[in-house]
Amino acid sequence: MPARALPFLTFQPPRGPSASEAMEFWTSLFDDGEIVSVTHRPDDPTAVVLAEFVVAGQRLRCSDSPPVHQWDFSPAVSLWVDCGSGTEQERLLAALATGGREFMPLDDYGFGPFAWVEDRFGVSWQLAAPSA
User: pLDDT tens digit string along 59-75?
Assistant: First the structure.
């Protein structure tokens, strides 16, 4: 089997939301959203050891980290989503911005409708849509 790279998200429940909360929210937003697999810690059935899920055609992995780290998510790394329409872009932006913050509000920055938002889990999303 050849090597493959997957984005990996490390959650720190003592500092914020859990991997399960994020996966359930994100997979509910996208038509192809699916939780592929989840392994929980035997001593804590709510803690995710390793999970794989799909959103917007992208497989991702995540876990809940038992130790608390000094770092967290950074907007320097984000998930880019090519939205099928402006309506889809607006829906995703509204949902992802709730409890989060907008870095670049929805506008045309010279390359079509675009928005950059950090969701309530601290993960950044760049949302692009085709020009009308």
Answer: 999 999 999 999 999 99
Q: Cα 110–114–120 angle (5° rounding)?
A: 150
pTM for the complete prediction?
0.92
Token look-up 């984000």 returns 78
Collect contacts of 29-36 with beta carbons under 8 A, ≥24 apart: 29/55, 29/92, 29/95, 29/96, 30/55, 30/56, 32/56, 32/57
DSSP label of 42:
T
| Contact criterion met (CB below 8 Å) for 97 and 91 | no
Nearest one of 43, 39, 79 to 62, comparing CA atoms: 39
Q: Is the pLDDT of residue 132 over 80?
A: no
H or E segment to which residue 82 belongs: strand 78-82
Closest of 123, 51, 52, 109 to residue 81, by C-alpha = 123
